Amino acid sequence: MPQMTSIGQSGPQVHPLGYGGMGLEGYYGKSDDEEGLQALGQAIDLGMMIDSADAYGNGHNESLIGRAIKGRRDEALVATKFGIVFEKGHDYSKLPTGWKFDVRINGTPEYAQRCLDLSLDRLGVDHLDLWYLHYPDPSIPIEESVGAMASAVEAGKVRQLGLSNVTADELRRAHAVHPIAAVQFEYSLWRREVEAELLPCVRELGATLVAWSPLGSGFFSGTLDQIPERDFRLNNPRLRGENLSTNRDRFAPLTELAAELDVTTAQLALAWLLHQDSVLPIPGTRYPKRVLENAGAAELRLDDATLSRIDELAPTGLAEGGTLIP
Ligand SMILES: NC(=O)c1ccc[n+]([C@@H]2O[C@H](COP(=O)([O-])OP(=O)(O)OC[C@H]3O[C@@H](n4cnc5c(N)ncnc54)[C@H](OP(=O)(O)O)[C@@H]3O)[C@@H](O)[C@H]2O)c1
Fold it and tell me: Which of 37, 96, 285, 320 could form a disulfide with 246 if both were Cys (CB 3.0 to 4.6 A apart)?
């Protein structure tokens, strides 16, 4: 068993890797609920925090997780998010994603309250272990959103608070209202911008950086040859058309390094993240056997020479194409 860690300084003990539930909603290829339940069960057995959002599958993901934790709530740590709006006929702020459809965000106290009760209901629990604002709402100060989230902690419905896709400045302002235990941002071998400001700020505040898409949405699986039509990843410029093959060539030395170390590319990508202080990666997979494979990354020790070599092979800015979320 690897050394367990905590979310923030005072959170419960968890596996150093979490489990990302988004892929169980068919965004990256067809998903089967029964197999998804096995993958979730495997992650819970290992003590991994389960990551969801009310947006994933429009609530279905939380319901599926509710089924996975039924009868074993005490063993399971569940994190979810709110803020993405599904209802039509409103003028909430649009996120600048560049996707072919609009994503709108509502971080108002009234909406937070409504979403929380729905999430608790779908998960079948009386409290969340960690609750995130999915994106900051540009139309209101972040202090207002976090103030509402803090009320949920006082009411006993939430244990710890998190933010997702924020700047260091937003994090500091929010943290002044209520301690923020976790911050989600994309972080992987091809997206290292957090190292400049956000990650140092997370460490200074004693929080945890929860790395989303730690495998580059599957790019660092070593198995992604092309993206099928209708796959959500076609919204990611790095994985589209010529960029995909250009990036495959640029990052190929990492696959060679993984082979040299006798580990899979996914394990190397996750192990590298686990060697960064205060970082908890949350890889997603539809398959229980890959949950185990990914967990193997927590057993790997990379020496300084190997870490320096990875820095040389995957410097910030190496990838061709923009990012999924700016
Ligand atoms: N806060 C946010 O805005 C935000 C945004 C995006 C994601 N997230 C969270 O982050 C989690 C992870 O991100 P992600 O799902 O986008 O990307 P990811 O974890 O980087 O990659 C997932 C992809 O990698 C494949 N994979 C996983 N382990 C593998 C292995 N050992 N060998 C080969 N392939 C493997 C999966 O395919 P298979 O299913 O076929 O194994 C899936 O296609 C999400 O589930 C979600 O919880 C948060």
Answer: 320
CA 66 to chain centre: 19
Residue 5's H or E segment, with its range, is strand 5-6
Catalytic residue among 19, 28, 56, 92: 56
Of the listed ranges 7-11, 96-100, 174-178, 210-214, the least confidently predicted one is 96-100
Domains of the chain: 13-216+272-313 (3.20.20.100)
Q: How far away, in angstroms, is 282 Cα from ligand 1 center?
A: 8
Confidence grade of residue 213 (pLDDT, cut at 50, 70, 90): very high
CA distances from 116 to 123, 149, 307 (A): 11, 9, 41
Asked if 56 is an active-site residue, the reply is yes
Distance 212 CA to ligand 1 centre (A): 8
Residue 128 Cα to ligand 1 middle (Å): 22
What is the pLDDT, as a whole number, of residue 223?
76
Tokens representing residue 244 in the block: 């995909």
Comparison of pLDDT for 63 and 227, the residue scoring more: 63
Model-wide pTM > 0.85:
yes
